[in-house]
Amino acid sequence: MPIDAPTLTTALSPVLLILGLGFAAGRHHSFDDDQTRGLSHLALAFALPAALFLSMAHFDRQTLEAQAPVALVMLAGYSGLYLALYALLRALHRPRLEAALIGYTFASSSVPVYGLTILGPIYGAETGSAVVGLVALITNLAQVSIAVFLLESATSTAAQRPSMASSLTRAAMNPLVWAPVLGAAIALTGLHLSPYVAGALQPLTSAASGVAIFAAGLVLATHRARLTPLVLIGALVVMALQPALFYAGMKLGGLTGDIAHATVVASAFPNATIALLFAHQYRTAEPEIASIMLLTTLGMIVSIPLTLLAAGYL
Fold first, then answer.
1. Which class for 204: exposed (0-12), middle (13-18), buried (19 or more C-beta within 10 A)?
2. What ranges make up the beta strands (E) of 113-154?
3. Which pTM value belongs to this model?
4. S-S: 97 plus which of 154, 187, 223, 242, CB 3.0-4.6 Å?
5. Measured CA distances, 96 to 32, 55, 86, 199 (Å)
6. What domain range is 254 assigned to?
7. What are the tens digits of pLDDT across the range 164-203?
8. Domain tally for the chain?
9. CA-to-CA distance for 22 and 2, rounded, in angstroms?
10. Which domain CATH number covers 182?
11. Residue 108: CA atoms inside 13 Å, Cβ hemisphere, count?
């Protein structure tokens, strides 16, 4: 897909503007911690899941069935990379808690937050929603659940450690997992969603991306950037290594088309906000993770156009 300045501006400017508004509101203490958590919860537990449910429920069945190879690349690029980074950090004698947290930060993705706003203007609403739905499904079910298991294992006694099955069950209960799964099930079975249900959810879905991005700005405003070696390495992994792995996976698999292209572009998105929430919960590497998030968020002005250009060679 050719790159043009108006398309990129349409895709990136709403994110940067709303993020900036959220950041300014956070700096001016317009929202306290409880209000910030409330906005994030509204976006991640209600608005975004509703948007993903509607998008997946209206998706074309044949197109959805054909995305299994893309989903495998996502699984390797997100969950596989996380496990590899965790093993590498442990080999470098990093503590288990730090390895689990830093590895997740490097491999995580904010696609569920920014995806609908950025990918829609570039590839169309249907393709953007499909990629966001798949990423939300895989990262929550096969990455966040692993992160929770490793983090809890590092901080609990043997009797308190959760099993992988319980971590997967907890992840499956996340609305960002079951909502797109339910929508995909409706599409795959050939059922048609009632227009009354779609119409009832539409006002909530309209606010999804805006509220999520604004809340991300509020979270970023609570920390100051630190340019340490760990932060710079993390930013390079997020903005360069991970997109390169996704591109290689698509190329080796011979995968083409808009969804494959959009998946590569999405791999250059900033790391997930939940990484900072984990850091705050476990009191580990919080300034560094916040700095990686801020750097990769600003860096997507460069990383997204470059991966968009690279995706054109698939």
1. middle
2. none
3. 0.82
4. 154
5. 32, 38, 8, 47
6. 5-311
7. 677 677 767 878 778 888 888 888 888 888 888 888 888 8
8. 1
9. 32
10. 1.20.1530.20
11. 28
